[in-house]
Amino acid sequence: MAYLTFDEYKSLGFSRITDEATYAQHEVAAETQIDVTTRFFYNADYAQHSLSDDLAGSQWQVFRAKQFKRAVALQCDYFDEVGADTPLGIANQDLSSIEIGRTHVQANSNVNATNFGKTGLATSVVAILSQIGLMSRAVSYR
């Protein structure tokens, strides 16, 4: 089950992606990248936490779940904007110069400035995930 449906994407006020098939492709890729980064926090196969349960839980759980969905939507928009939906694809989109014969073209690309490390996640997505505690790498002492 997708973390965010196309209808939910639109209801959150996002409109960059207008084609449902394109959205579905980006959403699957966003799920993968976010799952790896958040250690599968809401992944249904891992079943540690349930996104649907959190949407009906305490005030904090509802807030966290809604912000998580917003992060998925932002990541889909990011993938659409850079024209790639994998870390390698994003890196390849950041072509800074090309030389053909004696002609040299150099662009001032800022894709790396919007990408968090080598994760393929947009910095705004990482900011949201950090604020809701899903980027923590702490080990439980219990």
What does this structure look like?
- The protein is 51% helix and 6% strand.
- It contains seven helices and two strands.
- The protein has a two-stranded antiparallel ribbon.
- Strand 1 and strand 2 form a beta hairpin.
- Helix 2 (20-37) packs across helix 4 (59-82) and helix 4 (59-82) runs antiparallel to helix 7 (123-131).
- The two termini are 32 Å apart.
- The mean pLDDT is 85.
List keywords for this structure.
globular; 142 residues; single chain; 2 strands; 6% strand; 7 helices
Architecture blueprint of SSEs:
Layout: H1 6-11, H2 20-37, H3 51-55, H4 59-82, H5 87-93, E1 97-100, E2 103-106, H6 111-114, H7 123-131
Antiparallel strand pairs: 1-2
Helix pairs in contact: 2-4, 4-7
Can you summarize this structure?
With 142 residues, the chain is mostly helical. It is built from seven helices and two strands; from the N terminus they run αααααββαα.
Mean pLDDT: 85
Number of strands: 2
Q: Which descriptor suits the 3D outline?
A: globular
Classify the helix fraction into a percent range: 40-55%
Query: What is the H/E string?
Result: HHHHHEEHH
How many helices? The count is: 7
Low-pLDDT runs of 5+ residues are none
Task: Give the percentage of residues in beta strands.
Answer: 5-15%
If strands are numbered along the chain, what order do they take across the biggest sheet? 1-2
